[in-house]
Amino acid sequence: MSDLAPAIVLVRPQLGENIGAAARAMLNFGLEDMRLVGPRDGWPNPAARAMAAGADPVLEAATVHEGIGAAAADCSFMLATTARVRGLDKPVLTPEAAVAGIRARAAAGERTAILFGPERAGLENDDVARASAIVSVPVNPGFASLNLAQCVLLMAYEWRRQMAGDASPPPQSRPDPMHAPAPAIEVERLADHWEDRLDAVQFFFPPEKAPYMKRSLRNLWSRMPLSRADVQMLHGALRQLVRGR
Amino acid sequence: MSDLAPAIVLVRPQLGENIGAAARAMLNFGLEDMRLVGPRDGWPNPAARAMAAGADPVLEAATVHEGIGAAAADCSFMLATTARVRGLDKPVLTPEAAVAGIRARAAAGERTAILFGPERAGLENDDVARASAIVSVPVNPGFASLNLAQCVLLMAYEWRRQMAGDASPPPQSRPDPMHAPAPAIEVERLADHWEDRLDAVQFFFPPEKAPYMKRSLRNLWSRMPLSRADVQMLHGALRQLVRGR
């Protein structure tokens, strides 16, 4: 996956803490290629390390560059994340469309990058102008407070979500045969058991309603996704309720 | 949108800061219905307010409850977020599939909730047993460090992404309210009723297995797509079995 994965380029990041938090966000979803353009407080930065909490390999492998051009020298498709879209004549993509674009390029053997701006002001127009397209996270227009690491997190999530969508869904392991769906014959026996016992305590009353009530109860058992363990427990509960007398 | 949006239920949250950060994460993507179950440091909490940074309306409207049943009393579809899936026989969904499920329920007029556990330990099995399904964010198995607010953020993002993706399907007509899915509070009461009566007849035996058996039984009720009519019938059947003595 890593060969296809986009590089995460932090442009003029201010706080080391945020660089560390971005590294964590990346690694949560399997992104490992971090590139820093002009980090304000120099590099390496102990505050980044402290915040990375285990994502140190991402920080250790991070490369530092003077400009976006150098940072993304090997990338032929670059996306600029911005909160505000500022009249640049450039496609504005949702994270979903952006990642789809990245994947299409990667599938063609191209390397890709996503640019994230400084915490306070975001990317400048000159930065955005270098990108192939703009990515804008569709936040609530009445309240937008995504920080740098959250924005990285959402893009990384979107990447992994789409990558996973390609693979066949992971089989749900059901090692215990008792958790397998109960075969119809077992559900039938369960329904019989309950009907018999409830008949014995005059549950199906008044008599003219009994057929309808019995059908409803049968329908209930057969609509339920019962496992074999469930069936066994429902037999046991009923036996014990009757025996409890 | 807010009528269809899921409630965010924070179960036994520890730090006020994280409640505030969760409120921000929610509001970023237009979710406003926060419910708190047993917040450790009481409520209201000044630390939450300080962290909310403008998402105060979410905190001010937040409701506090003693248990999950009460917090999600009006919700008939409840999802439990967990990092680890722990051998409960319950569907495990990606955020994408979970939100699709929420939207389908919402389109049918049902209210829904997503449960998030305490920061340190996450939801307990007894909490998860109350949910209809499990949501697990597909993080890197070699590095998973999502915090509470990040997890809320990803679910909220996924919600908004799908809402933006297409118009919600037209509401399905459900003429008979008794055939509507039972709200969580009714399922909770049904589970209580059965547990009490089965306790009285020593069903949960031997004692060291009782907690496991009780959880399995709760898990059974919450996994089943019970209608209100089903719940009523299962109450009635139990009453009659006990009375039959």
TrEMBL record, chains A, B:
Matching entries from SUPFAM superfamilies are given as: alpha/beta knot
Q: Enumerate the UniProt keywords alphabetically.
A: Methyltransferase, S-adenosyl-L-methionine, Transferase
Highest taxon of the lineage? Bacteria
Q: InterPro entries, per this entry? A: Alpha/beta_knot_MTases, RNA_MeTrfase_TrmJ/LasT, SpoU_MeTrfase, tRNA_m1G_MTases_N
Q: Is Transferase one of the keywords? A: yes
User: What is one term from the GO cellular component aspect held by the record?
Assistant: cytosol
| Gene Ontology molecular function | RNA binding; RNA methyltransferase activity
The answer to whether UniProt assigns keyword Cell inner membrane to this entry is no
Query: What name goes with this protein?
Result: RNA methyltransferase
